[in-house]
Amino acid sequence: MIPAAFEYYRPKDMEGVLAVLTEHGDDARVLAGGHSLIPMMKLRMAEVPHLIDLQDVAGLGGISVSNGTVRLGAMVTQSDIIADAVLADAAPIMREASLQIADPQVRYMGTVGGNVANGDPGNDMPGLMQCLDAVFTLIGPDGEREVAARDFYESAYMTAREDDEVLTAVSFKVPEGGYAYQKQKRKIGDYATAAAAVQIVKEGGTCARASIAMTNLSDTPVYSEAAGAALVGTSVTDSDIDAAVQAMLGDIDPAEDNRGPVEFKRHAAAVILRRAIARAWSRA
Amino acid sequence: MSKKMHIQLTVNGEAQEFLAEPRELLIHTLRERLNITGPHIGCETSHCGACTVTLNGKSVKSCTVFVAQADGAEITTIEGLGNPDKLHVLQEAFKEHHGLQCGFCTPGMITRASKLLEENPSPTEEEVRFGMAGNICRCTGYQNIVKSILAAAAEMSASKEAAE
Predict the structure, then answer these.
(1) Which residue intervals define the domain FAD-binding PCMH-type in the entry (chain A) (predicted)?
(2) Residue A115 pLDDT exceeds 70
């Protein structure tokens, strides 16, 4: 319950953030909504001698949809996502997923940037971002760079972000077609036993494009290119969905924990993906 | 020990100023420093919501906010919603509909419910249950909490209509 002492910084701009990160390296961390980091600090699983609060840093908020691209500032909260009508129209899967993350209080504080940068395979946004083929913007001492969500995750808590970089935004093309974020969990606020993000484009009764990613079924989110490919050109019958599920099962690598043994997780993943594809197809 | 910070808060309309270590959790500030002991601590993993307060218009779990982050903030706790002589509509409804037993979750429940009804003045039962899902109760089984909140919502819209 009691976190260790730290020095606290609340800079007004990114230069101020980067100055602390550069000076203290791995001893400094940014604080966004605080709803993964503070719990870890309270359990003394995270040691952060220098904590940089991003709440006053200009330019990290805002949701925009323009020129066919959705952009969310890293400090956009889950409740901002749920409340934004323009976003709900452009990318309804965002709202569907956010409503399955945590609980109301956590959603007022927890941010999209924190969710995707955290690196915990339990987080829901990383798989969703891979499904949407999102791009993450990172800023560091040498300037800005972009990393595809599909290339960002290396292993549990290990990402392509360097210690002296800050994730400032996520962006993706306005998705087309039907969508579903389907999540199996033990209760409200739990990380997924299995979850699937699906976007499907239907043209003349046939699947023209499909994108599928799975949550909490490996030490990273899993973008299953093979599962999407299995649906393309089909009319998404039960046997086509079975083929996609089989392809997905080849890509996941769940670990046993108190959500269940590996066999059960593979079973749950199959059930969840079947439901997600059926729902996305019905909306396509 | 780290350097103490000069902190300013407005809690239930009253200005507060003090020096604190940045790592002090807002729930401890309220309880230990300001003697506002309605908000409670039921866990150390940010699940239970017994510490829920309204911070700058948001329902937050004050166990998951450092006092440093709250510097300059406006906070409402259960003590700011009503008092024994003049109960808030929700407090009256929880009493009337047996929405509490031990009372430990109640301050967080009512503070959260006040924000929920502000955002959604006429929720369905399902919306109440989903909107209160960040608050755990060990005694009531939730049924009477839902009844209390729905009753308070009806009461609040009735008195709003009467005023118009």
Answers:
(1) 1-177
(2) yes
CA B107 to CA B137: how far, in whole Å? Answer: 11
Q: Looking at beta carbons, which residues of chain A come within 8 Å of B134?
A: 102-106, 188-189
Are both B103 and B44 inside the same structural domain?
no
Which structural domain, as residue segments, surrounds residue A29?
Answer: 7-53
Q: What amino acid occupies position A186?
A: R
pLDDT given at position B84: 87
Domain boundary (A138, A154, A173) is at A173
Angstrom distances, CA of residue A223 to CA of A178, B57, B64, B147, B158: 18, 38, 32, 44, 51
CB A9 within 8 A of CB A49: no
Q: How many domains does chain A have?
A: 3
Average pLDDT over residues B2-18: 96
B44, A42: Cβ pair inside 8 Å? yes
Of A3, A8, A104, which has the smallest distance from its Cβ to B5's Cβ?
A8
* Set of chain A residues whose Cβ sits within 8 Å of the Cβ of B52: 105
Q: What is the pLDDT of residue A154?
A: 98
Q: Residue B76: give the domain boundaries.
A: 5-80
Q: Is the pLDDT of residue A255 over 90?
A: yes
Global pTM reads 0.97
Angle ∠(A149,A139,A19) on CA atoms, nearest 5: 145
Rounded to 5 degrees, φ, ψ at B160 are -70, -40
CATH number of the domain bearing residue B59: 3.10.20.30
Average pLDDT of the segment spanning A254-282: 98
Enter the ipTM. 0.97
3-state SS assignment for residue A208: strand
Which residue is listed with tokens 């400032």?
Answer: A168
Mean pLDDT computed over B100-126: 98
**What is the spatial distance between Cα B66 and Cα B22, in angstroms, rounded to a whole number?**
6
Tell me what pLDDT residue A9 has.
98
